[in-house]
Every structure is written in C-alpha cells, then in structure tokens.
Specification:
Layout (H helix, E strand, L loop, with lengths): L1 E6 L2 E4 L4 E9 L6 E7 L6 E7 L5 E3 L7 E6 L4 E6 L8 E8 L13 E2 L3 E6 L1
Parallel strand pairs: 2-11
Antiparallel strand pairs: 1-3, 3-8, 4-5, 4-9, 5-6, 7-8, 9-10, 9-11
Length: 124
Amino acid sequence: QVQLAESGGGLVQAGGSLRLSCAASGRTFSYGHRGWFRQAPGKEREFVAALNWSGGNTYYTESAKGRFTISRDNAENTVYLQMNSLKPEDTAVYYCAATRSRYWPTYESGYDYWGQGTQVTVSS
C-alpha cells in the first residue's frame, strides 16, 4: 500500500504563491506518474498537473500553464506543486495522486493512490 501525505495549503491573497507538498510512504515505486487534482465547492474534481517519474515529462491543464510548476525530490520521494500568480478561481481542495501506469496521466480514473487533500483558498 502507498500512503500520500499532503501539506502546504492555506489562505493567500490573489497574486500570491503557495507550494504544496506530497510525500509518499509505504510500498512506493519509482515509475508511472504523480499528479495533482483539485475540487472546488459544487464542482467536479479536475486535473491540474502531472509528472512522469522516470522520464520527467510534465503535463498541465491550460489554466495552470505558466503559473504552476510540478516537480519532485527523488531522494525524499516527494512531489511539489509550486503555485504562483494565484487567482480566486484556484480556490479548491487539492489532492495528490500516484499511479504505476505509463498512460493517461491527466485522467482521475488512471490513479490508484490519493492523498487526503489540502485546502487552498485565494482571496480577492
């Protein structure tokens, strides 16, 4: 089993920055993908960013491009989401996820392991 522990959420003003962290423990693996998803009140969970662990390829939803950066620390088995130029519409619960699959990194159904979520609130 893989456990994902998230941290870094909080309250920030529009234009500010936050860095989310997702530390993996248990029976971790160094292949497949790590991803970030978010869910705003009353809305469906949506893809934000993903990282191919072995190859380093990254994927972003259009609204995140140029503002968010997904990265990793191999030694600590941790994935980060650096969020800059935050907007009120970024307000959501953010979840990290992991999958052994090499395919479909932007789809929620492709992930097997999920963190508990961390709240990000961006004020106007």
